[in-house]
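User: Quick sanity check before I run a bigger batch. Here is a single chain. Can you write out its predicted 3D structure?
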Amino acid sequence: MADANGVEAASAQGDVALTIYADMALVEDVRRIDLPKGISRQEFPDVSAQIRPETVTLSAPGAAVVEQNFDYDLLTPDKLLDKSVGQDVSVVRTTPDGQEVATRAHVLANNDGAVVQVGNRIEILRNMPGRVVYPGLPAGLRARPTLSVTLDAASAGTRAVGLRYLSGGFGWKADYVALFDESAGKLDVQGWITLNNTTGTGFPNARVMLVAGQPGSNAADDGDRYVRPPRRPMGNRMGTGGADGRETLGDFHVYPLAGRTTVANAQTKQVSFLNVAGVPARKVYQYRNGWQHSAEEGESVDTVLAFTSAKDGGLGDALPAGTMRVYMRDARGNPQFVGESPLPHTPMGSDLALKTGVAFDVKVQPTVEKREKITASEWERTAQWRITRNDAAPVTYTIEQHPTYWRTQMAWKVTNARAVPVEVDVIQDGLDDGWHDTRVSAESLPGRQLSLDSRVWHVTVPARGAVTLTAAIDTRY
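Assistant: Done. Predicted structure follows.
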């Protein structure tokens, strides 16, 4: 039924479904509305206050959309004064004897306080006792975010009208709680979905689906598009095992929440999605050294937790990005927090190595023992140049090269104050500076090249003992 202004009665939210991404959501709201024949304006209150109006689509069987407007001028004390500029209001003050006195005032402006005219006086209403009484509600102000749609219906009747739009103010991430038993080499992991709603609107009894991944966005670029990610511990390898039974949406993984749930405004909600016990895991010590870095004393190594997300012998699922917090039991059997690490979107079948902290009793002291120039004969064994010309006449070329070669003698003293032997991966970074011909000419333990820039040595250190690793590294710089 339309009122005197031709506006249909407001509808409440209907059957709501939320598809929540990392920083937004797709809202689907199906409401039953009684449409008159012909043109009418329908109001949809309780839409998200962070709705993206340009993404709104509305489907109404037997009706065409003529126009749609998002009214986000919400009712507040300041907005009431703004809308009353040029109008008369009553200013009510309380006298010392407790009597209320109303004075008629004409609102001239509302900029950091209302400026009003009372008779021949100009007064400022700011931080003063009293209240303002309005003759009515100014047009255009809404108590709730409202979408207004003008429809042209071919016939009258009640029908299901589907409203769909994108909204900011939503987000979700995964949080993992891991209990590590070092002696048994086992890991228990619980995964929790943490979702939040800061849209200004609540969504009761909604169907909720979470999408892991980052859809493309036309958001404004606020700087350099490339930011080098932080270096992760050695041992991370992305898997190729598909998450059997896991619902997908294109290239994204989907996590539907069981049943319906209320996503209230200004709320953080947690829902369990993973619970696995007895996953094989091990603690690894790692130390990374920058190029030509020496230390006057030993530096603590990183403590790394290594495990897999494989179906056999692992967590057995794809892992949405989040934070893993690791606990270990103390001597009294109580779980104690030992560290946390970020976790990227991880396919099933991946090898994971998460830094949880630094070791107290295991240290590495790197030393540049010697750095000297070496001759080309020590460096080069063969050399080849290919010269291409289009001219048939013979030409003699003289090729001169005077590169400078360097040999850096490195030593890493690895100490272990623990009562048990430990194994430490010592990683030397900075080996490549664009020439792609760095080589290790001598080493006390066989190493393995991780990349052009990094090499690793696996060092076993006895209980309460020390081992010194040495290597000679030949470079052009």
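Residues 1-11, 220-228 have pLDDT under 50 and may be disordered.

User: Great, the batch can go ahead then.
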